[in-house]
Write a structure and sequence with these properties.
Elements: E1 2-3, E2 9-16, E3 21-31, E4 37-41, E5 47-54, E6 57-64, E7 69-75
């Protein structure tokens, strides 16, 4: 994962075997967040990606065009 210097963009390399996603690079733009940092990617007509971080916790979610939502959380240890 790479964040830009000013914090307005992020690039994430993601692999999720459960969803048949293998090493996909996604570019995110900063979005409004009540707490922590939130980034969103709407480049696909079929899927919206959202990446949210706060302290040592991260959460990525994917919303498909058919309104199916998948999400994964992780915590730094």
């Amino acid at each position: 994962m790479l964040y830009s210097k000013n914090g307005t963009e992020a690039t994430i390399d993601i692999s999720l075997s459960e969803l048949k996603v293998d090493k996909k690079a996604l570019h995110f733009y900063q979005a409004v967040s009540a707490s922590g940092a939130r980034y969103i990617n709407k480049s696909s007509n079929n899927i919206t990606y959202e990446w949210h971080t706060k302290a040592d916790y991260g959460h990525i979610s994917m919303l498909s065009g058919t309104n199916k939502k998948f999400s994964i959380s992780c915590q730094l240890q």
